[in-house]
Design goal:
7-stranded parallel β-sheet; 15 helices; 4-stranded parallel β-sheet; alpha/beta; Aldehyde Dehydrogenase, Chain A, domain 2; Aldehyde Dehydrogenase, Chain A, domain 1; homodimer; 2 domains
Chain lengths: 419, 419
């Protein structure tokens, strides 16, 4: 039954993807405008559906943070709809030809950017993802299969209904956007094995979901969104200016993946700097988990003892690991051992140390004298963000529209045979 | 035991990859030259080891084709070594910075091409792959874990020994190239799950190996090398010139993945063309598997009845499927249903048909008026070929050196915090 359901879901998505692949940019813009209009027209219905979800979440005793993520009121919905205009304004990556060359046998060869085909996205509480991902997929000529969290099902159903009706209005197949509306969890593992129809899976969720996808998927998966992020304060750092960057990286939005998890401090400046830093951090309500040297240098503070386990933790809260390191090599070693490959930074005024760190640290984003919080599609000027990849194939770091494309090789000959 | 072995293999490879990542192009060229010299010096030893493998293969009753793939005599080894010079001459893709931009907050952002890290390659009979892959991996600053077929183990051990001694001679860690020398098959599935250390798996082998990797790997895998390739003869094709292209695609080297598997012929020209084509093909010893219409139009030939199963077969031999189609849409539908996404071609003099086919057929390589046999790194001018990808993420079609790289984002600020 669920096997059959997924097969038809996949088949319909693949079929729809053929209709999307060669739309012109103007046609795709018209489609996205129609979706914005349809969502606006259905706003009352969508907000009412979301109220049901929120009421159920409250009754189920979900945390306030969860409920806040779930909430889609008129104001938020208007923001989501306004974002569609931004996407319409982005350049269309599809159809561009590049790396063209004339081969010795007279054949003209090039690569042409084309849609991936069908994208599967598995996500959790936020209903805005339903719209964001559908819009980015359609902008790049891809069909999409969405699997949201069960706690947002009513909201997602209302959103998908409005999106699909706009697609049909534009004379395109509704199945360009499909929502799995059955909370059965075996559908997730089933989706991960639908390699005959689905070209890429993007899991947007925590560590458990990422592992499930890595282990179960027979489809290429873009892992990401897990950031154990480090910032190294070199002995040549401007200590006064460093504190602002660290506070920004840790405190501005502690629940996101590019928030800082561990500060590494060169031992030559640790005695001078740690008391200043600790004062600034605790004033912001940050809880410290430090190595032995840290505890010794901060006798006035209550410091939890750091362990390999704590250094392997993505805090997602106002907790920060601190470690005193002998030198830049020790900092790099620590990062290599504990980083999730998301974002790391060095603070220094020493050009040799800066260059060494940027060369040797191989995470998706590496910063000199900047906060790890910048790893974000919007901040990077990509105009949109599908996800943040922490793997190395296909796309790395913030994924913009380009990450939803592939290329095909086109060869034009004159009845040319290989000699 | 095997778990521990794989862990240390992975750890050593990862450690070695750090030493390789920032080598200059000159250092990498010197390393490849040293490998060429070391293989030359060890030629007698390598050929003797290969003779053992060949003798064992003969004793085990392997086919002549298998034994030929296995054979590494002095002449072939010299060819393999000469190819290293070609790779030395290719541009080094590592270190290039691109997409640089100045953000509004003053941060300078760019992407820098960097090695993937550790690449795992699983392959079958040909011992030359051991050298080819090691050289391409090192050229791009990657460490590599090799798992060859058990029938070439002696050859591979001798080759790896020579390669590793050259690496050490250059002051680099031998574990930049490691060969799994234990024929235990659980090591393959173990390797596929070594995601802590291995960044990409490239399976170079048949359908079974590809499926195993898709199903078992927790590491990103590049599937490929399976080609169910189609050529569509449009009603506006130059029929006289078409035959040469079809013969080339089918006959030149029938055992490779870009060889032709199915010819689709527009019904308007089928009655005229099929007898000509069949005569030319059978003169070359090609066996025909045709649809009903084909059989009717070729009463003089013995034609096996085509089925969905035969149309799903990668022949790898002098067998060819033939189907008469109502029009170009039927040809495209057939390709969408049966293609493995490798290479397809249209023969036509009609510009609208040509453009429609190139737009609508979404395989790794799509040709107008050319043989499918061109899908090859050498033919495409990539200078080298790691594998031919039939998936859409990361790399598509012939994979050159670029496919062994990723990028990291580098952000340079002035103690910049996110506002």
């Amino acid at each position: 039954m669920s096997e059959q359901y997924l097969q038809s879901l996949g088949q319909q998505a693949k079929q729809a993807s053929f209709a999307l692949a060669n739309l012109s940019s103007a046609q795709k813009s018209a489609l996205l405008s129609a979706i914005a209009a349809s969502l606006t027209a259905a706003a009352d219905e969508i907000v009412a559906a979301n109220e049901q979800d929120v009421a159920a979440a409250k009754a189920a005793g979900l945390t306030q943070a969860m409920i806040d993520r779930l909430l889609l009121n008129h104001q938020r919905l208007a923001g989501v709809i306004a974002d569609i205009d931004n996407v319409i304004g982005l350049p269309d990556p599809i159809g561009r030809e590049f790396d063209s060359r004339l081969l010795d046998n007279g054949m003209r060869l090039c690569r042409r950017a084309v849609p991936l085909g069908v994208i599967g996205v598995i996500y959790e509480a936020r209903p805005n993802v339903t719209v964001d991902i559908a819009v980015l997929a359609l902008k790049t000529g891809n069909a999409v299969i969405l699997r949201g969290g069960k706690e947002t099902l009513n909201s997602n159903l209302a959103l998908a209904k409005a999106i699909r009706s706009a697609i049909v209005e534009c004379g395109l197949p509704a199945d360009a956007v499909q929502l799995i509306d059955n909370p059965d969890r075996t559908l997730v593992t089933g989706l991960l094995k639908l390699d005959q129809y689905v070209d890429m899976i993007v899991p947007r969720g925590g560590d458990k979901l990422q592992r499930l996808c890595a282990e179960q998927a027979t489809i290429p998966v873009i892992l990401g969104g897990i950031g154990i992020c480090h910032l190294y304060v070199d002995k040549a750092a401007d200590l006064t200016r460093s504190t602002d960057v660290i506070i920004n990286a840790k405190v501005q939005r502690p629940t996101v993946c590019n928030a800082l998890d561990t500060v590494l401090v060169h031992e030559a400046v640790a005695a001078e700097y740690l008391p200043l830093l600790a004062a600034a951090l605790t004033a912001q309500g940050v809880k410290l988990v430090g190595c032995e040297a840290t505890s010794k240098l901060l006798p006035a503070y209550e410091i939890e003892a750091a362990t390999d386990e704590s250094f392997s933790t993505e805090w997602l809260s106002l907790t920060l690991g601190i470690k005193v390191v002998a030198d830049i090599e020790a900092a790099i070693s620590h990062i290599r051992q504990f980083s999730s490959g998301h974002s790391e930074a060095i603070l220094t005024d020493d050009i040799a140390a800066a260059s060494h760190f940027l060369n040797e640290v191989n995470s998706a984003a590496v910063y000199l004298n900047a906060s790890t919080r910048f790893t974000d599609g919007g901040q990077f000027g990509l105009g949109a963000e599908v996800a943040v990849s922490t793997q190395k194939l296909h796309a790395r770091g913030p994924m913009g529209l380009e990450a939803l494309t592939t290329y095909k090789w086109l060869g034009v000959g004159d009845y040319t045979a290989r000699s």
